[in-house]
Amino acid sequence: MVWLPVSEREFLAVVLPSDRYQILADLMAGVELSAEARRAAEISYFSNAAKKARR
Amino acid sequence: MPVVESEFLLALRANDPKHKTALAIFRKYQVLEVCTAALLEISWLLKSKSRTPSEISLALSLLRAELESRGVTEIPLTTSQIARAHDILTRHAMTFFDALILANAEESHDRRLISNDSSFDGTGTVERISFK
Fold first, then answer.
1. Cα B110–B115–B120 angle (5° rounding)?
2. Cβ–Cβ below 8 Å for A44 and B46
3. A30 CB near a chain B CB, below 8 Å?
4. A30, B49 Cβ separation under 8 angstroms
5. Contacts of residue B15 in chain A, CB cutoff 8 Å?
6. What average pLDDT score do residues B82-105 get?
7. Residue B72 DSSP label
8. Are B41 and A41 within 8 A, CB to CB?
9. CB neighbours (10 Å) of residue A49?
């Protein structure tokens, strides 16, 4: 992956197709689809939505 | 053309136990569709693992680039699918995202869903193709 500066604070990530699978492995490390993980993701989704609705 | 969902997307990780199978599915089917609901689920799974918004954005961009390069088309998520997902939850024991994926997949071309999730069985609206 190559990081190209776009501005003082922004970079553009350029990923070679051959690197995609490895970078996806790094970014999605530890993510699983067990019933517990899916429930946790849903609880995170709905609790955030509920907080927003209460504001 | 069969539809892929979250498990297939996770199998695109280089170190995933089903990675080679996922690549074989690309070769076998040539033309596939992907549930947009699955990409939404992946983003929430990443969020629940405390990934930063930039990391989640990059992961989704990479998934999109890979799917586009393989000619995989997205099934757009619609309001009627979201409503139907809630109807599905009244009839079947599954997670909200599973119901959303099912409602999304029901609008695919041939209603065949590539998934190892047996909760899709018995819904009567899609044919499940398992991959190991």
1. 80
2. no
3. yes
4. yes
5. 25
6. 94
7. P
8. yes
9. 10
Q: Do B48 and A44 touch (CB under 8 A)?
A: yes
- Smallest Cα–Cα separation from B68: which of B32, B97, B101, B98? B32
pLDDT in tens, A17-43: 788 999 999 999 999 988 788 777 777
Return the structure tokens found at B125.
């609206």
Q: E strands along B2-110, which residues?
A: 3-4, 33-35, 73-75
Which chain A residues are within 8 Å of B55, Cβ to Cβ?
A: 27
Cβ atoms B14, A21 nearer than 8 A:
yes
ipTM of this complex prediction, to 2 decimal places: 0.89
Q: Which residues of A touch B65 (CB under 8 A)?
A: 15, 17, 20
Min distance B46 CA to chain A CA atoms (Å) = 7
Please write the tens of the pLDDT for every residue from B8-65: 999 999 999 999 999 999 999 989 999 999 999 999 999 888 899 989 999 999 999 9
Q: Considering the entire predicted model, what is its pTM?
A: 0.87
